[in-house]
Amino acid sequence: MASFRCSNCGRIKEFKELFAYELSTRPCTVCWKGKWIEYDGPMAEVVLGREDSEVADLVRRCEFLEAQIQATFRTKELQQKQYEAAGTRDQARVFESHIRLCNDTIVSFGKEIETLHAQIHEYGVREAIRRDAGVAFKAAQGVSGTSGKNKLYIGSRDFVSSYASGKRKKPRILDVPNWSWGLNLSWVEGGISARAQFKLKLDDRSPYSTIPAPVLQKLREAPGMQPETFLELCRTRGSGTLLWYDKDGENRPTWTALEIASLLRSGYQFRFLARSSSPKEEKIVLELPN
Ligand SMILES: [Zn+2]
User: Fold this and answer.
1) How far apart are the CA of 191 and the centre of ligand 1, in A?
2) Could you tell me which residues come within 8 angstroms of residue 289 by beta carbon, excluding any fewer than 6 positions away?
3) 286: CA distance to ligand 1 center in Å?
4) What are phi and psi of 144, to 5 degrees?
5) pLDDT tens, 11-31?
6) What domains are there in the chain, each with its CATH number?
7) How far does the centroid of ligand 1 lie from the alpha carbon of residue 15, in Å?
């Protein structure tokens, strides 16, 4: 997904499967004056705004379904009255089938509402998300002051938070009570704004917490690859690892993969360095070239 910015009004938009040359001929659909130009600046605000509007859509759909259920209840009551007053068996059967239809409708709308509630829940309480996004941005931006190093940790959430439980390392991880991808991205962009180093914390004991060797080899060969190329690599070679989530009916990049893609988009590159504690071992970081 590529992002573009209007040359006139500054509106930022993401376009799926569209290339710059296709867009260059189209005007901005907000002000109708500017042109779309490629944009690689901060995106968290755009993502948070998209999350807000996705939640609003889900809430509207819920309200619509609730109104439909109420209306169906009223219809059902009417059909019940007519059923009781039916003069023949045939008439009664017609009303009976209408009542059944009403019941089915109520049940199926009810199920959809449950699903919607679960989806809304996943977006979190928006005010809290917005507040934490600001907190996370500042925490990442100021990490050198709070932890002594301009360095942040990314990787499997469980592993990273157990690794960085100490007072000195804790400021190097995303550590706020709420979560959404937009909030997570705010944290990453706070680090980018301070040109922080992002260190990949890998745990070889679990496939979900590490990157397979063949993928690491590709990253070594092309340390500054395009984010789209990286995500394609995650999809084709990273299934069931730290890079690609394919459980519970989902099939998507992991949040770590998206964090890395955001860093690559901002000009960060992979670097494979010797560990200062044990120089024979390797550590993997993402850094902005000097
Ligand atoms: Zn515009």
Assistant:
1) 29
2) 224, 267, 269
3) 34
4) -65, -35
5) 998 877 666 677 778 889 899
6) 2-39 (no CATH), 45-122 (1.10.287), 150-177+196-287 (no CATH)
7) 15
